[in-house]
Amino acid sequence: MSAVKSEIALPRDDEGGHSELQANDYPWLKSSSLGVILPLALAIGWELVVYLGWAEGRLLPPPSRILATLWGLTAGGELALHIGATLWRVAMGFLIGAVAGIAIGAAVGYQPLLRRLLDPSVQALRAIPSLAWVPLFILWLGIFETSKVALIAVGVFFPVYLGVSAAVMTLDRKIVEVGKIFRLSGYRLVCRIFIPATLPSVILALRTGLGLGWMFVVAAELMGASQGLGYLLVDGQQMGRPDQILAAIIVFAVIGKLTDGLIVTLSAPFLRWQDNFAGGH
Amino acid sequence: MLELHRLSKTYPNGTAALSNFSLEVRAGEAVAIVGGSGCGKSTLLRLIAGLENATSGIRRVDGDEITEPHPKIGLVFQEPRLLPWLSIEENVAFGLEGLDITEKHQRVYAALRSVGLDHQGKKWPREMSGGMAQRVALARALVVQPSVLLLDEPFSALDALTRSRLQDHLVRLWEETRMTLVLVTHDIEEALVVANRVIVLKPHPGRIDDMQEVSLTRPRNRDDSSFEAAKRELRNKLDQSLVVPKRAFAG
Prior knowledge:
By secondary structure, chain A is mostly helical.
């Protein structure tokens, strides 16, 4: 094919983006640290209230007391042990739940026959509150690790299954036809069209699944554990130590956010093509 | 050469989209297919592209029967359908497999150059205007060097100025490469600018109603009186094809 010099010059529309006068006028408004202001103000306020003796702070200890408890747990090496136990359970449960959710979700989304066969049963199982499985899992799998991991896996499975099957099912036929016109089928069509096209939804499903995983690890550890952040919660309740409960809650929040951030960071290079509203900022 | 013999397509819901359609397109010929909505234009193109199975009839390209998308046939859809996760150069390279990197790069940039976008290869589809995106789609179809290029109302979503520029551009590409063109359009002017022969379809079910050889000299001038005359003639034929026989109202 020989080249033809084009005389067509169309306006480039790559200078888009959302104008944000407000943020340009006050650069600090753009800072991501803006979100810290409210919790920090509340913490300092409560600290002052207790410090000045306006409140006792017995049921809601001031931040300094929670930090002291956290420091005590950290210095003794106890906290690392609890975090390790909880992380291991979440990691195993997430792995099993996510792999099963992706595999079955993708198969059900891709194959109408499998959808008719499996989806009604999965949806029926999904309608059962997952905590209702606890007694059965304890009977079947014992009180130790296996039942806890199984419960977390169940919690992770459903949002991942739902997200992945919906993403595959609703994939634009027109995009699939581009693959077909270049004679892609089977495995090659899946790798070159289905996986990249559904990736944003799959990542979102995994993030939702991980969130559920963190929720279920608490339930799993509340049902009887001698280690883990959930154990710290139960122990704090039984010993009447709200500072320990709050310390455990803070650690949950931090680790939950960190693991979610890990998924976002790891997936970012594969999603930089996305043309999102937020992408302009 | 493209041969279609007594091609019919009835959808599972009973809609007859195309009935006994026969057509031969010689190698290097540019044929336009026009008709009102529901006359099976797009179905016809999807059948030739191998994206759909025919209910009956035969489709051949250079003697090979078409039962699925064929390597000798390229298709430009109505919308650009660029893959948003691939850069412009990767989109163009999508259909090229089994080539070494240097050759692939050369082919991709030759195709991008032919549509005047060789400086845009590293960009993302989201950074392209509608006209640019459609030119990328054209480059993606051209890069595999098809002997037949199918175009399904490729410029219908563009503004009038961009549309006429791209029509002229397509004609220049066709003159350079002499590939066989089948252009489906509802735009009479577009059909007359591009094609040597215009086929007029009649709806319900889609079938050939009339035909018009276009012997205007190239480059064709839209303001020329002979172009205007050809346009009038084609418009009359198209109007005729859309006339519903009186007995159709009887029952």
